[in-house]
TrEMBL record:
InterPro entries listed in its UniProt record: Dimeric_a/b-barrel, YCII
Gene3D superfamilies according to UniProt: Dimeric alpha+beta barrel
Name listed for the protein in its UniProt record: YCII-related domain-containing protein
Protein family according to the UniProt entry: Belongs to the YciI family.
Position of the signal peptide: none
Length: 146
């Protein structure tokens, strides 16, 4: 089962503030622990929304592009870690081990399960599954573990 640990944006991250050396070291230690346990799939930090854009697709097919920054920092994402574990309980335990970084204001994380092929039922036909497998092979991505 794959899970994404979502790191919400903060005023600091949206202002372009970078982690301190101590924060980077703590995250590196955590990521190495995930790697040694064989559950780390990947993870990245994201630049602030001031360097991004939002795309709204209207019902008429028109696309509206809005350059960042975006106002609602509490709804924005600053980064993520993707893990592949045997259960939701195991994912929760990994989130509990997350480094206590981010200053005195504290922080929140969000845990979300990533869809797997079997979650889609009969609508994900064998032909579509094969196309998905071909795309993963072409990008070098590995198939998720069930």
């Amino acid at each position: 089962m794959r899970f994404m640990i979502i790191v919400p944006a903060t005023a600091r991250s949206e202002a372009g503030g970078l982690p301190t050396e101590a924060e980077l070291a703590a995250m590196t230690d955590y990521n190495e622990e995930l790697l040694r346990a064989g559950v780390l799939v990947g993870g990245e930090g994201l630049h602030p929304t001031s360097r991004g854009a939002r795309f709204d697709f209207g019902p008429d097919g028109e696309v509206t592009v809005t350059d960042g920054p975006f106002a609602e920092a509490k709804e924005l994402i600053a980064g993520f870690t993707l893990i592949d574990v045997s259960s939701r309980d195991e994912a929760v335990e990994w989130v509990r081990k997350w480094p206590r970084i981010g200053g005195e204001e504290g922080f929140a994380l969000e845990l979300r399960q990533v869809f797997a092929a079997e979650d889609f039922g009969a609508e994900l036909t064998p032909e579509l599954q094969e196309r998905e497998a071909q795309m993963r092979a072409a990008t070098g991505a590995t198939a998720p573990q069930s």
